[in-house]
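Q: What would this chain look like folded?
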Amino acid sequence: MKCPYCSQENTRVIDSRPADDNCSIRRRRLCDACGKRFTTYEKIETIPVIVIKKDNNREPYDRSKIMDGVLRACHKRPVPLKDINAMIDTIESEIFNREEREIPSSVIGEMVMDKLKSLDSVAYVRFASVYREFKDVNTFLSELKKMLDK
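A: My prediction, written as structure tokens:
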């Protein structure tokens, strides 16, 4: 591993432990040349997943797109960032456990809405209104009635 400070290749691992998400390894390293310490993360390489968009375009899966949508839905809501990250980790696990190379964006959207519903009902309605393209107030009301009936 190359040192980010002096670019020497003689670094050694001084501490290794699971990262917070339990899906990667956190390693503390020490550069033998300059003596500085730095952290690296080792993550399992997964099969690249392609997302099939509504217009049939295909693009690589990107976690940040889910994160952006969920953060917008949770704006000014009392939802901790660690809960959002845990939710997205769960969704990612479901996506990669399907072992399919392509997944429709609609499936991912439904996964997000399903998880958001239990996390925060207001965030769920916000996300659903954009995702399902609510056209008017009646669509909002019918979605709210479905939530209240359950």
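Helices lie at 63-73, 81-97, 105-119, 121-131, 137-149.
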